[in-house]
Amino acid sequence: MVAKKFLTATWRHLILMNWRVDEDLLTPNLPLGVELDRWDGDCWASLVGFQFLHMSVKGVPAFGYRDFPEINLRFYVKRQVNGETRRGVVFIREITPHYMVGWVARALYNEPYITMRMRQNVDESGALYQLQNDGQWQGLSVRTVGPWRDQVEAELFITEHYWGYNTQRNGDAMEYEVEHPTWRARSIESQCLDLDVEKLYGPQWAKALDSKPHSTIFAEGSGVMVRSGNRI
Fold first, then answer.
1. How far is it, in rounded angstroms, from Cα 25 to Cα 186?
2. Where residue 87 sits, what CATH number does that domain have?
3. Counted domains in the chain
4. Digit-coded pLDDT (tens) for 47-97
5. Is residue 232 a part of any domain in this protein?
6. Cα dist from 160 to 6, 20, 119, 135, 195, whole Å
7. pLDDT, tens digit (0-9, with 9 covering 90-100), for 93-109
8. Domain that holds residue 139
9. Residues 9, 35: contact at Cβ < 8 Å?
10. Residue 79 covered by a domain
């Protein structure tokens, strides 16, 4: 049975900075019933910044919480269900400027949200997403070049994961579906990352993300729909 629609929104101007990472960093965060997904033989993790727009929950517009930036850290997993491979993501941490958004996501999905002061700057040439950490503005940004284009296969591995997985408070796993069309991308001219990764995610992640990203994607985004979660 198809799960009911829980949330609709628009995700726009996504920056996805991607690193090859050791599987030992990820396995402690694996929910039950899923396995690591790999591209080119490696596990990957991504820092993602984007615009979260026009949010409605169960068909009701979330007035006051409809236009804000988000920054998250995620990695890639898959689950086999009756011969179908469901490719999804697991979040290490999601950051929003609105306490109520994080509270709902934690209460209903046990998603690892925290609230911080944030700001964004998006125009035709790129995007900047920042949070305030110890009184300092820091974040990730890109400048782009060229027209919107179809993504190449390596980019699609990052953006074409349509399921979310997390661990519930009792140790069970939850699965939920995310629907959106395939996104277009633009080529990257320059990029900047100045997040205090160690303070936000811990020393192991600071070591893993210490190098320049192995790839960076700037995706156009689209409307999205998130279905209600199911225990697995």
1. 30
2. 2.40.400.10
3. 1
4. 999 999 988 888 777 666 668 999 999 999 999 999 999 999 999 999 999
5. no
6. 20, 17, 27, 36, 25
7. 999 999 888 888 888 88
8. 5-226
9. no
10. yes
